[in-house]
Amino acid sequence: MRFSLALFGLSLLTHAACESRTAPLLAPPGPVVTLNIEGSEPRDPLRYAYEKLLTQSVILSIQLTMSPDNADSESPAVLVPGLEVTVNAVTIEVDEAGTGRFALSLAGAHLISDGELKDEARVALNTTLAALDGLSGRMVVTNLGEVSELVLDVPETLPALTPTTRTLLLRLKDSMKGALSPLPVEAVGLGGQWQRRSVTKVVGVDVIQTATYTLLSMQGDRWRLHVAQQSELAPTEGKRLEGYAKGELEVDPRRPLVDSATLTLKQTLLTNVNTASASRDELSAVLSVRTR
């Protein structure tokens, strides 16, 4: 149960999965953004203004803790191995509409905690991480921060796509998705608020995600945003998901990924609802982004 919950939780923020060793990891079209509050005057449209040949190097890290229990017993919290990766994004091209094309490369990946791994599993995981070094890909992002393409090419040196390898690649895409901030079409001022709603199929189940962004400050070319996200399952017999994430982001509009962010996430998966065998599993995570 713990392993399946980990896969489920790690997949909740992602928009794609690995199909095969040779297939690229594709992301579907971006979600729709709607404006809730215009904010105070003066109001201006927020737009990314990518700079050609600019290189952004960001460090993404994620740490997970699971707390599973059921009707008959309770289990202690389980620390899942934490992962930290360094990703370089180089702006290759910016078209007339302001859409940027970026070349991605992985400059390093390593564990920041071992969790409860046994020696054999730790060795296998470190081997996979070493093989990820040099992973490349590409990304296309509009000047509103919407991702129209995100592809990670699996290197030939990568071992066969075991469940562990698949999970690591999903976690990497999760982190990259969390490092992008969409913008509204309309002009906004301080206190302005907009919402992004998306439906994602995860492990064969539709997950509805609603993220609300609030403009806290604008200092020079930098924006500071607060984000709060809720996740829930589409109506599914016997299952219910309660999830939220919140934190603050700092954005430099010349770059596609946020400059810095710390997000905390908590999700509760209820299974066999309204039965004697009902179970409740909690997943907590901390996602951080910082520019090097």
Which terms would index this structure?
single chain; 292 residues; mainly beta; Lipovitellin-phosvitin complex, beta-sheet shell regions; two-stranded antiparallel sheet; 14 strands; disordered N terminus
Explain what you see:
The chain is mostly beta strands and 292 residues long. It has one domain: Lipovitellin-phosvitin complex, beta-sheet shell regions, CATH 2.30.230. The chain has three helices and 14 strands. A hairpin with a 5-residue loop joins strand 6 and strand 7 (147-153). It is globular, with a radius of gyration of 19 Å. The chain starts with a helix and ends with a strand. The model is unreliable at 1-30 (pLDDT under 50).
- What is the assembly state of the chains in this entry? single chain
User: Beta-strand level of the residues, as a percent range?
Assistant: over 45%
Our count of domains comes out at 1
Shape: globular
The largest pleated sheet is described as: 12 strands, antiparallel
SS-based class: mainly beta
Cα Rg: 19 Å
Low-confidence stretches: 1-30
**What level of helicity do the residues show?**
10-25%
Mean pLDDT, nearest integer?
77
By CATH, the topology is Lipovitellin-phosvitin complex, beta-sheet shell regions
Task: Assign the CATH class.
Answer: Mainly Beta
Instruction: Specify the number of helices.
Output: 3
Named at the architecture level, the CATH assignment is Roll
CA(first)-CA(last) distance = 37 Å
Write the H/E string, N to C: HEEEEEHEEHEEEEEEE
Count of DSSP E strands? Answer: 14
* Strand line-up of the largest beta sheet: 1-9-10-11-12-13-14-3-4-5-6-7
